[in-house]
Design goal:
Length: 446
């Protein structure tokens, strides 16, 4: 070792290098260091129960010399919800489970409010039987830190919520754009189908009329032949009549025409409903018949529903409702599709409407698999789904709830796992004047 570098004392001799201070002065220096660091000191005589609290400790809590002088008196200042944890931490330290004592707890301030304190300590003496006899420690006010942590947690939760909301809005925007594109396509298809349907319907009306006229003419000629024709001429005409099986045609043709008319009207209804759904992007508020919207939606889903469920309509006497019809049709579509998907084999979907007080209710109930109780509080959250991966986005119910909320309504759900689910859409009844006020054109009394 170079001569100009002093040799450090060995660890065994380091203690001897410290200045030997009187015990009282050591205690005062210790307390002074704690006061400077902002910590309060405490000293607990476990045998007698007496407790010493330094000036800084008392100042943290707004007390003077009259603060608790015993451990039991100190406990009366501790928040009741923290007492059990405090005793457990002390016991763990006494039994060597914890090398040091540490506990964050709330202590009542002189103003009556509780402050969060970080308490640390160490057992320094044991009696001849090894039992704890003296413990010393410090206390630091961490109320500001706890408040900051709570604020940070709230801000974090709010950030997560807003982020989820943003993601949901972005996906809903994409979905809305897709729906708008589908709407444009549907409008084009409906328009292209509507033109030939128009002349097919017109021509079919003429065809029905011509068929009746032809049958009437045939009957007239047959009657005339029976009355005036010679035997051979009548025999030839009657043979043609029978070969054409005119009697059967007279009986069967009306039924054929009726069934064809029914099929044509069904196609026209589908095209009309398709045109309704082509207006998905429209935001025009109006008074609308909800039963018409429900029937249109059921008609659109007819093929998907008929293989899975029987549809029961229990329609009440509903007034028209102030709404954006195409948006509510989207709600009905989402709820009905969910009902179909919830039925594993064959079941029943009940669509029920009624008026309750100042709002209308639309129930869409299924006899499907139901929803687990632990999922009921989450089903309206964006991206939450109980379906298998790739089977759903988890946005259908979130979008439905958002649309209903825009109509100042709400969606309720009740479900029993293994028995079925009922979604109830509640929408407010709106008077003509209230609707005009919402549109910015109040109706003036006459």
């Amino acid at each position: 070792m170079p001569a100009d570098v002093p040799e450090l004392p060995s660890p065994a001799n380091q203690a001897a290098c410290w200045p030997q201070l009187p015990p009282g002065k050591v205690s005062r220096c210790w307390h002074a260091a704690l006061e400077y660091a902002g910590d309060g000191a405490w000293d607990w005589n476990i045998v007698s129960g007496a407790m010493f609290f330094g000036p800084r400790f008392k100042a943290m809590l707004g007390y003077d010399a009259t603060f608790a002088a015993t451990f039991d008196a100190f406990l009366r200042h501790v928040h009741p919800d923290d007492l059990r944890r405090l005793h457990e931490r002390i016991e763990h330290h006494f039994t060597h489970e914890d090398e040091a004592f540490a506990c964050d707890l709330r202590i009542r301030h002189q103003d009556g409010e509780y402050r969060w304190m970080q308490t640390r300590g160490q057992l320094v003496e044991r009696d001849s039987q090894g039992g704890p006899s003296r413990m010393v420690g410090t206390q630091r006010d961490i109320s500001a830190m706890r408040h900051a942590e709570a604020t940070l947690q709230q801000q974090l939760a709010e950030t997560v919520r807003l982020n989820q909301q943003l993601e949901g809005a972005q996906v809903q925007l994409v979905q809305s754009e897709k729906l708008a594109a589908i709407g444009q396509l549907a409008a084009g298809v409906a328009h292209e189908m509507n033109t030939p349907l128009g002349f097919v319907s017109s021509n079919f009306g003429s065809l029905e009329r011509y068929a009746r006229q032809l049958l009437n003419a045939v009957e007239a000629y047959r009657s005339a032949a029976i009355e005036h024709a010679d035997r051979d001429a009548f025999a030839d005409a009657d043979a043609c009549y029978r070969a054409a099986d005119i009697d059967f045609l007279k009986a069967d043709l009306p039924a054929l025409l009726s069934e064809t008319r029914e099929g044509l009207e069904r196609v026209q209804r589908i095209v009309r409903d398709l045109k309704d759904f082509a207006r998905i992007g429209e935001q025009e508020w109006q008074f609308a018949d909800l039963h018409h919207g429900l029937d249109s939606t059921l008609n659109i889903l007819r093929y998907e529903i008929k293989h899975k469920a029987e549809v029961v309509r229990e329609y009440g006497d509903l007034p028209v409702v102030w709404c954006v019809p195409s948006m509510l049709n989207q709600v009905f579509l989402n709820l009905l599709v969910n009902a179909v998907h919830a039925i594993p084999a064959k079941g029943v979907i009940t669509v029920r409407t009624r008026v309750e007080s100042d709002h209308v209710c639309i129930d869409i109930a299924d006899t499907g698999c139901g929803i687990a109780a632990e999922h009921l509080d989450h089903i309206f959250e964006p991206f939450f789904t109980t379906k298998a991966a790739g089977k759903g986005t988890g946005l259908g119910l979130s979008l439905a709830q958002d649309i209903v909320a825009r109509h100042h309504g709400r969606i309720r759900v009740s479900s029993v796992e293994g028995q079925g689910t009922t979604f109830t859409v509640e929408l407010p009844l709106t008077t003509l004047n209230q609707a005009a006020m919402q549109a910015g054109n109040p109706v003036m009394p006459s």
